[in-house]
Design a protein that fits this description.
Length: about 600
């Protein structure tokens, strides 16, 4: 079967529907040629681009137009979030009466970005505001009574949380008894029984909020700031012309939303798209200095850069204990200070990498030493000495490696605390909810969660969790599959197509980077770099392209002779030049 494209070329489809590659089972999904033709014609798109759009839940030319060209003006309005007006009124009262306000955040990138955003905006309104980040090891995630007592002693009368608070019943009750008002702004799944905060601002509280449901913590903070601005504009504080331009905050919103792996659809897609442009030309000293240590000072910042360069560095101080350094970097108003802070953050990130590799090796040793894990559907491991801040990172590497939902626990003050990471098919938060009789506390999302339990609960939890996973994921080892968007010829991967693929960015959760399969090429040159990276020079007809696959080979492996490649095309920036390059995901 073949398809004749508009240019009269043929996209060859003489490949089977599934192909076993070296690492993955490749699944070539069904093409809706009719819809792709309709979209391609209406928007004047290359056939390959139109085809990919049909595989991103787009069912009409107008949806395709919104997807490719959506703008800030298309954002859903703040009042869709229930009780946002209540939160605004309480914050305005605090600002006008000179009350001491505290923004209580979290130590990850989302939490830090959200804290920076709200603190910055309230200061701009001349509010008396300070921030509080809990210490990851000594205090842990969320609000705690001791911190609130301390804030009360300092004369704080209003606490506004960002990226946390939904499950902190006791601490919030304690704050209220002390006379502190609490506004919770959060995006984590709220529990069935809600805490007694003065206001709860969480898009997941209302099933009907479709467009805002997936906001990250920083996204919720951004919407609160938008509503505050509207209030002050209406009350005559600013004309439309001199009100603060909230677009300037979208660099922080993009950082937090991407790093938190929030789905990049709907509102998040617009916020991160514009936010990445803001990040690429940011005037904030902290982000400029951070880009410098990442070697990104002269290039456009993309989704990939946030996930693998900027994000890990901002996360590192919080993982190792105290996120304060990263927050001070974001808020820095002095370039020399920002550079010093960025250097420190970079150094802590290096320490984090070393510690993470060491912990991974130790956990892998435990997995291999215990035969029962081979037959199990899940991995639940506990050891008293493990570094709490690194458990999530290592759990996600194990989940990926073994294709099993993974929970790692360490001992803190006589209880077990830890992190879980899931595989795509399994809802971790729901599973923990079902096992909650064996837990003291838990919270999180479908793919990632935190939990706490007592020593005597551990065996019961392990058993209940394993049986939940076994029920939903068949025990026999499922091959890891990847959905292929389309077969492509090398001459179809050209700058014109790349322009449209760039319009489809940012890629990530909810909007995967397009994956193509190609075959019938000649390998003109093959090199193995550092024992595990594969570099190829490909030729098909008159088209030549470079391809690179990072960590694709086992060390010491002989050079492969790939007949088919699975890849994503990307621009490679090197010494001021921009070159098209195929990123190899797998070969067969
Ligand atoms: Mn978050």
């Amino acid at each position: 079967m073949g398809e004749t494209s508009k240019q009269g070329r043929t996209i060859v489809e003489s490949v089977p529907k599934t192909i076993q590659g070296t690492r993955y089972l490749w699944q070539l999904s069904h093409h809706d040629h009719e819809l792709a033709g309709e979209i391609g014609q209406a928007l004047q798109l290359p056939p390959l681009v139109a085809l990919i759009l049909t595989k991103r839940q787009i069912t009409s030319p107008s949806q395709a137009r919104d997807f490719l060209y959506s703008r800030l003006e298309n954002l859903a309005p703040p009042h869709q979030l229930p009780d946002i007006e209540k939160a605004v009124i309480r914050i305005v009262r605090a600002i006008e009466h000179g009350e001491q306000i505290v923004v209580y955040g979290d130590y990850d990138v989302d939490g830090i970005a959200a804290t920076a955003l709200l603190v910055h905006f309230i200061s701009r309104l001349a509010g008396k505001v300070q921030w509080y980040l809990p210490h990851r090891i000594h205090e842990g995630y969320g609000l705690n009574k001791q911190a609130l007592s301390h804030l009360h002693d300092q004369g704080v009368s209003l606490v506004v949380t960002v990226d946390c608070g939904s499950s902190d019943h006791d601490a919030i009750q304690h704050a209220r008894e002390l006379g502190i008002d609490v506004i919770v702004t959060d995006h984590h799944q709220p529990p069935r029984h809600l805490p007694a905060a003065n206001v709860l601002l969480n898009p997941k509280l209302d099933q009907d909020i479709k467009e805002l449901r997936d906001l990250a913590g920083v996204g919720v903070a951004f919407y609160l700031v938008t509503a505050l601005r509207t209030h002050f504009r209406r009350s005559g504080r600013w004309d439309v012309s001199d009100q603060p331009n909230l677009r300037e905050y979208l660099d922080w919103v993009a950082l937090g939303t991407l790093a938190d792996m929030a789905p990049l659809t709907s509102t998040n897609r617009i916020l991160t798209r514009v936010g990445l442009l803001e990040l690429s030309r940011t005037s904030r000293y902290g982000l400029q200095a951070l880009r410098e240590v990442c070697g990104l000072d002269n290039s456009q910042v993309g989704d990939w850069d946030v996930l693998f360069r900027l994000g890990p560095r901002l996360n590192a101080p919080g993982r190792m204990g105290n996120g304060e350094l990263a927050l001070r970097l974001l808020l820095s108003t002095d370039l020399a200070e920002a550079r010093t802070l960025a250097g420190q953050v970079d150094e802590i990130n290096r320490e984090r990498q070393v510690a993470e590799d060491k912990l991974l090796a130790e956990v892998l040793g435990s997995v291999e030493a215990d035969n029962s894990f081979q037959a199990s559907s899940s991995l639940v491991l506990a050891s008293p000495g493990w570094h709490k801040g690194l458990l999530g990172l290592v759990a996600s590497r194990l989940a990926e490696r073994f294709n099993k939902p993974t929970v790692l626990l360490t001992q803190v003050d006589q209880v077990w605390e830890g992190s879980g990471r899931s595989v795509p098919a399994f809802d971790l938060h729901r599973a923990l909810d079902c096992c909650s009789e064996h837990l003291l506390r838990f919270g999180g999302h479908r793919q990632a969660a935190g939990l706490r339990l007592k020593q005597e609960q551990l065996p019961g939890f392990r058993e209940a969790f394993e049986s939940m996973v076994t029920k939903e994921i068949p025990r026999e080892d499922l091959p890891r599959t990847l959905k292929v968007d389309s077969v492509a010829r090398l001459d179809e991967i050209n700058p014109g197509v790349m322009t449209y693929l760039e319009l489809m960015q940012p890629f990530g959760v909810g909007n995967p980077e397009p994956i193509f399969c190609c075959q019938d090429f000649q390998v003109e040159n093959l090199r193995i770099l550092k024992g595990s990276h594969l570099q190829l020079r490909l030729r098909q007809g008159n088209t030549r392209l470079n391809a690179i696959g990072f960590r694709l080979l086992e060390s010491g492996q002989a050079a492969p002779a790939p007949e088919r490649l699975l890849f994503s095309p990307r621009w490679n920036y090197w010494q001021g030049e921009k070159r098209l390059q195929l990123h190899i995901i797998d070969y067969g």
